[in-house]
Amino acid sequence: MPGFVEIIFRTFLAFILLWGFVHQLGKQTIAQKSYHLYIASITIGTIAGNLAFNININFLYFILSFVIIAAVVFILNILALKNLRYRKWIAGDPTTLIEKGQILEESMQGIGFSLDSLKQLLRGKGIFNIEEVEYAILEIDGSLSILKKTEYQTITKRDFHIESPSNIIPVELVIDGKILHQNLSKRYDEEWLLAELKKRNITVSEISYAVVGTTGGLYIDLFQDHL
């Protein structure tokens, strides 16, 4: 087999293996919510990269390594789901950095986390004063979860006993001048859509994007916007 043909074959095979790996593990692989998935993503990527262009090593060895890593990840996932003790060891534990308004220096030192890093994550949450924070927890994926002190929390309609209408999931009905029939329902069927378009003197072919929003209103964007 000529060298360039072998590289093409290896590259396609590497892509298919990676695609299958991510597809089987689901979105948690992309989010990298735990230690073993983070490590597995790096290792699998390295193996797939070498499989694509390193023709000095038999590609069967790469496939064997790929299968072994994938099997280890699947086994660890099963153990993490079945046993809480194993789950903490495999996936790790969240770490509380601020408790009752007090910074836990020992917890931060235990994970090698600096005060500057904490302040940076807080700023990313829109918090520039540490005194506003009641609890701060560093999650497994490295994100920071915040609970503000009561006096700094945002007032909601519930605090004023104001009832709000229930929201719905947005439903896309038209994209690029074509009705998405798979998204139509009893409430938002084709007859209802055409009636709404007739009220606006619009045809389906004129629409770039149409969606029923969270409040039930129909939003329409035309190919030719009259600004």
Describe this structure in words.
The protein is α+β, with helices and mostly antiparallel strands. The chain folds into three domains: 87 residues, no CATH class; 58 residues, CRO Repressor (2-Layer Sandwich), CATH 3.30.240; 52 residues, CRO Repressor, CATH 3.30.240.20. It has eight helices and eight strands. The strands form two sheets. The protein has a four-stranded antiparallel beta sheet with strand order 2-1-3-4. Strands 6-5-7-8 form a four-stranded antiparallel beta sheet, with helices on one face. Helix 1 packs parallel to helix 4. The radius of gyration is 26 Å and the shape is flat. The model has no long low-confidence stretch (mean pLDDT 82).
Concise synopsis of the structure shown:
Helix content is 46%, strand content 16%.
Which regions are unreliable across 5 or more consecutive residues at pLDDT < 50? none
Radius of gyration, in Å, reads 26 Å
Give the averaged pLDDT, no decimals.
82
SSE topology string: HHHHHEEHHEEEEHEE
Number of strands: 8
Main sheet strand line-up: 2-1-3-4
Structural class: alpha+beta
The main sheet comes to:
4 strands, antiparallel
As a percent range, the share of helical residues equals 40-55%
Distance from first to last alpha carbon: 60 Å
**Count of discrete structural domains:** 3
